Amino acid sequence: GEPWEDYEKYEKHSAIYRIKNVTTPSQVLHGERDVRVPTSQGYEFFNALDRIGIPTEMVVYPRTPHGPREPKLLMDVSGRILKWFDTHVKGKGKEKAAS
């Protein structure tokens, strides 16, 4: 159904209503022409994470729907994700396993 027909369902599954439970550094990669998830929701999520002190990064890709199609943008997304993982994930599994 539509949000106005079943508001409680949409509210229950909305990430923004659970933002205080987020503890994981989060990367928001958004297409400016995304019709599934409006860019405004990406900014809302990013700003909320930033306000509660969660390490976060947001990138909005031009001409991009729900996922990049252009090779140059695909390369950029891949590079950013790898860099993000290197910064926020790499080595953490080893530390946890050793303790």
List the helices and strands and how they pair.
Elements lengths: L6 H6 L13 E6 L7 H13 L4 E6 L9 H18 L3 H7 L1
Parallel strand pairs: 1-2
Task: Give an overview in words.
The protein has 99 residues and is of the alpha+beta class. The chain has one domain (7-98): Alpha/Beta hydrolase fold, catalytic domain (Rossmann fold), CATH 3.40.50. It has helices at 7-12, 39-51, 71-88, 92-98; strands at 26-31, 56-61. Strand 1 (26-31), helix 2 and strand 2 (56-61) form a beta-alpha-beta unit. The longest helix has 18 residues, at 71-88. The protein is flat. Keywords: Hydrolase. InterPro entries: AB_hydrolase_fold (IPR029058), Peptidase_S9_cat (IPR001375).
Concise summary:
With 99 residues, the protein is of the alpha+beta class. It contains four helices and two strands; from the N terminus they run αβαβαα. It has one domain: 3-Layer(aba) Sandwich (Rossmann fold).
